Inverse folding.
């Protein structure tokens, strides 16, 4: 199997095992990236398995198209958000899916391109963009920093970045933009340092600030909730949902969504018979999240924060 510098797939063996792949299976990869997971899925579902691949980023679709060309019509690629996965899955394969994979966040390719603005890089000035899909209209990080009120900036940094000092940073941004816009990652880093955010903390505050902006620009948490719900609807009985998260906000959403879907009757215990009629839609395949081994983290430090959770769809309900 070819390796790629575009992105090293994380928890690859564990993901394949949780998807419980069989020849002929129909799998939707909602976050293709460099197609490392997708290629391995195609190998394990040969000779006639189908892979439906989505990504918001046209670069990823192009890369995946090149890498997966040898699989011919076993591959269908669509540039779209996994928010739309129910519609796309029904169009591509109306009888349902055997597996859905969501490997969240950004790829190494996206992180490593200064022009995408996903992180601070010491080289050429990096614009504060952070849109996964730059070919369609969308609000950039610079635009959010220029237009949100101090209260909304504070809420963004504290809810999406869990940033100590969110209010102080929000006020510093509003004050700064009265005289000059925040256009580049360097401008923002200097402001964070100047405002004294994160002194004495173990987390680099810039990481939390960039995380918060990225989540807001791409509306990532709402997209995740919608994508999970859509996945429960399109999986066939016995079908698997596998989700890889990279920070606690994402992991919490996945944990709650799977636990809630695994719940049956929610009537008060005083009811002699069930009136809500609610049936569990999934069973948990992983009680605790699977984490990368020390060996994987050593060879791929970006795997460090990964958590894998998985669920199995029950009979249609
Ligand atoms: C961690 S990478 C996936 C890497 C991939 N599993 C591989 O093996 O190369 C995450 C990818 O998800 C994409 N992405 C993030 N949010 C998305 C969304 N809501 N819908 C579709 N793609 C999304 C990003 O553009 C990025 O390419």
């Amino acid at each position: 199997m070819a390796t790629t510098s575009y992105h090293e797939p994380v928890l690859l063996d564990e993901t394949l095992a949780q998807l419980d792949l069989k020849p002929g299976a129909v799998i939707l990869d909602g976050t293709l990236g460099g197609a490392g997971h997708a290629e391995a899925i195609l190998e394990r579902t040969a000779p006639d398995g189908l892979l439906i691949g989505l990504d918001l980023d046209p670069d990823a679709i192009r890369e995946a198209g090149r890498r997966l060309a040898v699989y011919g019509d076993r591959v269908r690629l669509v540039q779209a958000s996994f928010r739309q996965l129910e519609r796309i899955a029904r169009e591509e394969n109306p009888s349902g899916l055997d597996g859905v994979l969501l490997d969240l966040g950004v790829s190494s390719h996206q992180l490593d391109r200064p022009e995408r603005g996903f992180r601070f890089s010491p080289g050429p000035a990096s614009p504060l963009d952070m849109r996964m899909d730059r070919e369609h209209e969308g609000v950039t990080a610079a635009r959010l920093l220029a237009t949100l009120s101090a209260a909304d900036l504070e809420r963004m940094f504290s809810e999406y970045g869990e940033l100590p000092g969110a209010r102080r940073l929000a006020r510093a941004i509003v004050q700064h933009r009265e005289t000059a816009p925040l256009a580049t990652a360097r401008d923002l880093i200097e402001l964070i340092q100047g405002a004294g955010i994160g002194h004495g903390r173990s987390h680099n505050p810039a990481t939390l600030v960039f995380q918060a902006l990225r989540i807001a620009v791409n509306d990532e948490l709402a997209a995740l909730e919608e994508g999970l719900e859509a996945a429960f609807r399109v999986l066939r009985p016995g079908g698997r949902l596998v989700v890889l998260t990279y920070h606690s906000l994402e992991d919490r959403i996945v944990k709650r969504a799977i636990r809630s879907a695994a719940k049956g009757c929610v009537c008060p215990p005083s009811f002699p018979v069930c009136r809500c009629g609610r049936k569990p839609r999934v069973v948990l395949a992983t009680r605790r999240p699977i984490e990368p081994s020390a060996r994987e983290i050593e060879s791929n430090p970006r795997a460090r924060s990964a958590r894998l959770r998985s669920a199995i769809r029950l009979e249609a309900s």
